[in-house]
Design a protein that fits this description.
Layout lengths: L1 H9 L1 H20 L9 H9 L2 H9 L3 H4 L8 H16 L1 H8 L2 H29 L9 H28 L4 H11 L2 H14 L4 H23 L1 E8 L2 E3 L2 E3 L3 E7 L6 H19 L4 H10 L4 H22 L2 H10 L2 E2 L7 H26 L1 H9 L8 H24 L8
Antiparallel strand pairs: 1-4, 1-5, 2-3
Amino acid sequence: MLGSFANALKATELRTKILYTLGLIFVFRLGAHIPVPGVNPERFAELVGSGAIFGFFDVISGGALKNFSVFAMGIMPYINASIIMQLLTVVIPHLERLNKEGEEGRKKITQYTRYLTVVLAFIQGIGMVVGVSGSLQNPGLATYLMTAITITAGTTFLMWTGEQITEKGIGNGISLLIFAGIVSRIPAGIVRVVEYLNAGTINILSLLLLIVIGALVIAGVVTVQEGQRRIPVQYAKRVVGRRVYGGQTTHLPLRVNQAGVIPVIFASSLLMFPETIVKWFSNSGAAAFYTKWFGWGTVAHTVIYALLIIGFTFFYTAVIMNPVDMADNIKKYGGFIPGLRPGRPTAEYISRIMNKITLAGAIFLALVAILPNFVLLTTRIPNIYFGGTALLIVVGVALDTMKQVESHMLMRSYQGFIK
């Protein structure tokens, strides 16, 4: 492994990309500790620490939410805007035409996504400021606007940073920022576990059980992330002029987890809304009822969370993967699935296969997302925000980044990481 890292640094272009990426990640981590003026960070930290859902989003932002820094909202508004634009591309004909125009069309959609990110960030910033008005030192209209504009600017800067990493660095910039935010909380989590161990709150067996569960989850995530169902496709021979094209057998790869971590983010954002409303009326009977029966960790919350993830997995997979278009493309290039006629029978076959593997991937995502509940019951280690969802993000981003580094190294005849 050390030799592979040394080889990666020998390639000038790859070394420049890695150092550029690390530099921008350092800027992101530096900004996560710059507080917004006019906010009492101690009082806001108590609010974040009182809810596990807030803790999850604090993990994604790398502690920026708990510090109420200029990056308090993180990159979530951009992710939401990207998801909304993907959904609108299927619904609105104009966006669908732009998506099919190639690079120029995608540039326009990217520009629309940026505008939508700023709008969503400002709206979310206003809602966040109003919801934590008790943490403001001088509540008022001017303070609300200044605070909302500040954290909106922070999100916009992170959006630009992620795009720069994608363009000039290595890996997907947005994913790497989330990755860096999660990984940055690991040392604090280790210190917390050691403190629990020294205080006698947990024992060494609980810690070993936690390590074993973590290793099994990582192995499962890698298996599912890399898992594919390969459908054989045969292409007929075509004669164009004096050349013969086709005649080869290939396959159509369908990933088990086609939706990635998007369904988990969808479900978490949806469940965070009532949790936020309850925090505004913490002393009411309705808030007490919700916390008792539907709060984080309850049976009802866990079941709803799992069902939402499964539903969003099917929904998002249906949006990004269209069996009819896939069948038409196979037919257009003279291909067919052995034993099936081109056209509608091929589309129906692909749809059946996708439904089966999507169900497996959706159930896996749901189990990974609700894993912290079972870890808490099994190990009795409290406040484990670095749960299955965080591991899913970290492992997925690490695999994608390693593949990009691998391709750069193989182009220069260096031995890569994956052997």
